[in-house]
Specification:
179 residues; alpha/beta; binds guanosine-5'-monophosphate; binds magnesium ion
């Protein structure tokens, strides 16, 4: 049973989404992803670090052949978006391949507004987006989340891969900053 409150560094967070709620939702998304991609040998492209846990759960539920790849994108320092986005890591070839980009959270959408055109320039056969969390009230770009876990309020969250200054990623539930 997950705790109702956690402390990460100097901040207290309240439980927002339990492990069982998250896993039930991932099961639902995986049905859709299996239906769409089963015969296509997709590349599951996880955005590190935050998407590692969600991405792992999606990949474990996929029932066809697939590749798994990673890239790193960073826009947050502490609890505020820095506005600029850094992308690094050698991207494995995605030309003529179906790609499912896997994110932890879509907040302002700035990261993906930069990343998705870069990936499209590599000519994948298709490019879809899965994100565990989505803050509609924070969105500042024209973006579609094809497989969205949960829409959440515009508040800072940790857990299930998401960190507060590098801590908190290991919690198997999502917590929201108190207050
Ligand atoms: P965006 O570019 O959409 O504003 O932000 C995307 C990235 O910022 C996410 O991939 C995530 O790493 C980070 N981020 C946005 N909102 C939150 C949040 O509430 N908590 C945490 N821990 N990271 C967030
Ligand atoms: Mg991220």
């Amino acid at each position: 049973m997950a705790s109702e409150k956690i402390t990460v560094h100097d901040k207290v967070f309240d439980l927002l989404l339990s492990q069982s709620e998250i896993e039930a939702r991932i099961d639902q998304l995986s049905v859709l992803i299996n239906e769409h991609y089963r015969e296509q040998c997709p590349i599951f492209l996880m955005v590190l670090n935050g998407a590692f846990m969600f991405g792992t759960e999606l990949v474990k539920r996929f029932q066809g052949p697939c590749e798994v790849s990673f890239l790193r994108a960073k826009s947050y320092v502490g609890m505020a978006s820095s506005g600029s986005v850094q992308v690094d890591g050698q991207l494995s070839p995605i030309k003529n391949r179906p790609v499912l980009l896997i994110e932890d959270i879509v907040d302002s959408g700035t990261t993906l507004a930069k990343l998705m055109p870069m990936l499209r320039d590599e000519n994948p056969i298709s490019l879809r987006l899965a994100s565990l969390l989505f803050k509609p009230a924070a969105l500042q770009h024209d973006l579609k989340v094809d497989y969205c876990g949960f829409e959440i309020p515009n508040r800072f969250v940790v857990g299930y891969g998401l960190d507060y200054n590098q801590l908190g990623r290991n919690y198997p539930a999502i917590y929201v900053l108190e207050g």
